[in-house]
């Protein structure tokens, strides 16, 4: 049996996926990792890169050689979106409690404002 060692970037130890042959197609490797980690295909995708070379495997038909070690990162199902978007948040209703305007650099943002911004960003990306 052949194997590929994988670990998520946030973990310390490697896990192993076994297969027969000299290499495994990346799409099969992703499917096996998602099965082992109990991840749902609809909720995320996996970004896989070689541990030694930091080369990211982008082709779904790329062949990963046996005994390779890879780093796995979860990404949104649609892929990683560009960071060129600028979000403008305007406050249309008053927030209760003592707080400062978002643009005020002299202090921190209140928790209510943080939640409001988070919800706006989360819902606008849905």
Topology:
Elements: E1 2-8, E2 15-19, E3 23-25, H1 26-37, E4 44-50, E5 56-57, E6 63-65, E7 69-76, H2 111-125
Parallel strand pairs: 1-7
Antiparallel strand pairs: 1-2, 3-6, 4-5, 4-7
Global morphology: elongated
Structural class: alpha+beta
Low-confidence stretches: none
Q: Let me know the average pLDDT.
A: 79
Strand percentage lies at 25-35%
Biggest beta-sheet profile: 5 strands, mixed
Distance between the termini: 42 Å
Count of distinct strands = 7
How would you explain this protein's 3D organization?
With 126 residues, this protein is an alpha+beta fold. Helices cover 21% and strands 28% of the residues. It is built from two helices and seven strands, in the order βββαββββα. The termini are far apart.
Which labels suit this protein?
alpha+beta; 2 helices; single chain; five-stranded mixed β-sheet; 126 residues
Short description:
Helix content is 21%, strand content 28%. With 126 residues, it is α+β, with helices and mostly antiparallel strands. The strands form two sheets. A five-stranded mixed sheet has the order 2-1-7-4-5, with helices on one face.
